[in-house]
Amino acid sequence: MNNLSIHFLFTATTILSSGFFAFSLPAKAHSVDYCIDILQEEAQIAANGTSKRQLKQKLRDYKEFERGCNQELQEAGLITLKQVRQDKVIANLVLSGQMAQDDLNPIKKKQKQEDLEQREAKLLQLRSEICANPAPEDEYACPKGEQEQLSSQSLAPQALVAQATDPVVVGQWQAPFNWPLVAVHMAVGPNGKVLAWTRPKLSVGSPPQYTVWDPNSNQFTNSPPFGQFGSLASDIFCAGQDFAPSGRLLLAGGHSTTTAGDGSPDINVYNFNTNSWNSYPNIMNSGRWYPTVTYNGNKEGVIVGGSITNSALNKIPQVWGTGGSTSLRTLSSASFALPVYPYVWNFVAPSGRLFNSGPTQATRALDTTGTGKWISISNSKFGNRYYGTSVMYDDGKVLILGGSNDKYGPPTKTAEVVELFKSNNWIPVYPMQFARRHHNATLLPDGKVLVTGGTSSGSFNNTSGSVFAAEMWDPQTMQWTTMASMQERRTYHSTAVLLPDGRVVLAGGGLPAGNGAKDDPLTTQGNYNAEVYLPPYLFKGTRPTITSAPTTLSYGQTFTVQTPDAESISKVTWIKLSSTTHQFNAGQRFNRLSFAPVAGGLKVTTPTSINLCPPGYYMLFILNGSGVPSVAKIIQIS
Ligand SMILES: [Cu+2]
């Protein structure tokens, strides 16, 4: 389907019911037609010698139409501002006699055809959803055996492929630049700086290295030679990580400093403000290599999984307490053998439990009260998704995408969502354009999900199938659009995070280096570089600005954001600070905040639920009608 066809979907009803337009719009289904009307009226006004004021009003109306069109259709993932402008060009051609009105007919025919195709795809999707979990009355629609066959594989092929190189459509990658280490772990702190760490070589006993990158100045602190830092005696390679409500970063486990394959029982805490570490050696019940850490609504860091040795899993979750406590609460009745290698994907669910969305096909929840218990939730549809990823993209809504059913088998393009407020059932959505494993999924200020990197090849870390093109997932349409391509191969041990300025930095990949990765000449361990992606919203005009906002907030609090752009603001969102490793970002999550314009700014209200918005630091964005975000203001909610 091309962009023209969607104009049929953008019916007058949609326009008139959208509430964007205070003035009366003609009942036109096609923006070319509307442009013709506007231009003819403009001509009439000019011919009649009517005042410039009227002409200006018409132009304002058109601008408003353009803005609304842009917003509505872009939110539906269907059109770009560029397309609206193209329609205006076509309208001009018709009016000037360079293009006959009839010339539009073939276009309309094509549109009808494509409209039909799209409706068919929607029907197929609907049937797939119904048959995935049929109610008794739906049995007739779902012949026996079809439930298994109907996966997202069977959905219509992806409709929206951006062929353009226009950054307004596909965004733009900046050239790769050197990094002092392979960024196996990354986190964006409350000061807006990016912490990254790794072990310099695969050999056990090499002391870990960390660096801090300032995205504004592009300067690194703690660059090589790294030397010893603080009292950090642990090997934090492949530790679990998440932000505490204080803004400090909790690192659980990692690797033994002496024995290959053994987990570390240590906890380390990084303070962004002082650029310093606190170490709590040997404090967990046992070693944990590859555990997952998730801070919940009760300000507890829940540590799940990890391995003690190559052949023994740490099955008992533990909880890092509040108030500077240095002991852990052990969830002794929640013993469970979750897979390690890669990490498991845990999110704070609306219930306050941790929702485990994979990578296994069976999904479950961890109740952390008392001594804890696991509760079975449901099976996702595709299968296991080893080395895939998952993201909670909205309140209680979780996406799983890519990965391999067999740990080292070929990856899938498929994706599924679950909406925990509605049901526990996984629903296949449109597949990605590319099958991927070892890819990153990053939440953006406009609520979309950017997917970067990974490989379409099976086996552990085969970079020959590296995917260079990014893809954008729009939760409104559940469709994917191919974005611009990066330059480096970013597969195992690559990381991606959203920066406060709305860009996304993608770094690392390596340790071990995959074939074709750009290696450091001395260590040949992987990508000693990063690339920065500028999403399309950074090419759509002037950015709104936040002149001031509070630094700390409480739940359900109404506060003022000072901005000169209040009138143009259509969304206020915030995203919890990113903390990511091994293709799972345990930190990021997204809230839409309610707001209203007031003199000099916006009156914004924070969420009321500690489970939908776990305490901690968030990047607050204000977005205008074209979806252009401000630079974030980082705010703590507690
Ligand atoms: Cu690792």
Cα gyration radius (Å):
26 Å
What is the CATH class of the largest domain? Mainly Beta
Instruction: Report the mean per-residue pLDDT as an integer.
Output: 80
Spatial strand order of the main sheet: 6-5-4-3-35-36
Overall morphology: globular
How much of the sequence lies in strands comes to 25-35%
* End-to-end distance: 47 Å
Unreliable runs, pLDDT <50, ≥5 residues?
A: 1-30, 76-80, 135-162, 519-523
Fraction of helical residues: 10-25%
CATH superfamily of the largest domain: Galactose oxidase/kelch, beta-propeller
CATH topology (level 3) name of the largest domain: Methylamine Dehydrogenase, Chain H
Q: How many DSSP helices? A: 7
Please characterize this protein's 3D structure:
By secondary structure, the protein is an alpha+beta fold. The protein has 4 domains: 3-100, no CATH class; 106-146, no CATH class; 158-539, Methylamine Dehydrogenase, Chain H; 552-637, Immunoglobulin-like, CATH 2.60.40.10. It is 16% helix and 29% strand. It contains 7 helices and 41 strands. A 6-stranded antiparallel beta sheet has the order 6-5-4-3-35-36, with no helix packed on it. Strands 1, 2, 29, 30 and 31 form a 5-stranded antiparallel beta sheet that branches. A hairpin with a 5-residue loop joins β19 and β20. α2 (31-47) runs antiparallel to α3 (52-75) and α2 crosses α4 (81-95). The longest helix has 29 residues, at 104-132. The radius of gyration is 26 Å and the shape is globular. The two termini are 47 Å apart. It binds copper (II) ion (CU). Residues 238, 493, 582 line the site of copper (II) ion. Copper (II) ion is lined by residues 238, 493, 582.
